[in-house]
Structure formats: C-alpha cells, structure tokens
Amino acid sequence: MIKHMKRLLEYIENLKKSEVKKLIDARMKEFKEAGSKPCSEIFKELCFCILTANFNAEKSIKIQNEIGDGFLTLPEPQLAKKLKELGYRYPNKRAEYIGEARKYKNSLKDIIKSFNDEDKLREWVAKNVKGIGYKEGSHFLRNIGHNNLAIIDFHIIDVLTSYKLIERPNVLTKRKYLEIEDLLKKIARESNLCLGELDLYLWFTETGKILK
User: What's the confidence (pLDDT) of residue 2?
Assistant: First the structure.
C-alpha cells in the first residue's frame, strides 16, 4: 500500500508543477465564487448535479447551459421534454426530482449557511433532495466552495484501483463510500491539497480533462 501510495503522490506532485495546477486553481476559485451567488444560481448548480447521476458530466454541463433558468420555471412536463430533446437519458425522472427540489430554490442558500459541519450538510442534502446521494451531494457542495468532501465516481475508483490502493467495489454502499473517502483524505493530506482539489487532479489523471 505504501509503495502504491507513493507512486500516486509522485504523479500528483508532477501535475502540480505543470500547467494543470493553474487550471485547477482557477476552477477552485470559480467554485468559491459560486457559493456567493444568488440562491437561484446555487439551485441551478444543484439541478446540474441531479443530472450527473449515472450520466456524462460534459453532456450535463451542456444541458445545464442550454436550460438555464428553465430549471427554476419550466413545468415538469416541459422540462422533461426539453431534457429528452437535449439527449438526456432519464428525462421524466430527473424532471420530477428537479420539480420536487424547487421547494428549496429560495431557501437553499440559507439552509447551507445554517450548517457548520460539511459532513452533516452533505447528509442533509442526500436525505432531503431526491436523486442526490453522497457522490452528487459532495459534487454539488464542492462546486459552491465546500472543499472537504470526496466526490467518488467511477473515474476516481478507476484511478485508485489502477494504483492498487483499493479493490473495485461491486456496490458503492455508504460504508464503502466513507471508507474510500478516508483513504482520499489521507492522500489529500500527503499532497497538501483539499479533497476538492484532489478530485480535480485525480479526474484529470483518468480523463485528461478538468470540468466541474
């Protein structure tokens, strides 16, 4: 384990000496600024993360940009129709989730501010927003400036598996998620990064891209 960890840490250190660091630093700055935007913008970011569950992140970004304020106002049938037209895989179910989440569209920012603990905040998001689990909850919160939660998707699992740091789980249960998150916290500490930054470095390692 120590040998494999060292190999990954060396790779991350090399990335930190490259142009990748500038791109990641800029993206982290964007995330921090996003947290200070109006509640409607934060809600639209939540909608983006609802879309990313079991779906392509790049396509979700394009759909988010295309729909825009429609996440706030479109009746569910029209939202589902729009999602389908844009090539989204689960238009009806995600339109339903977004429609139900609208009860928080004017209060979401205040709810987030009421939590001092990011783990408890993620727990609230996962319990109260349909279509959001630990991965999507962490993704949403990272994208609005909460940097100490791990976003464990198949790209991250692929990297950790390829470096022989974990065995690929058949099912990502809550217990397994938190177990892998503990490993990522250790990697982040050794890399002098927060979990939000580490996610971008690992995502780049697997995909060659820096998204959000």
Answer: 80
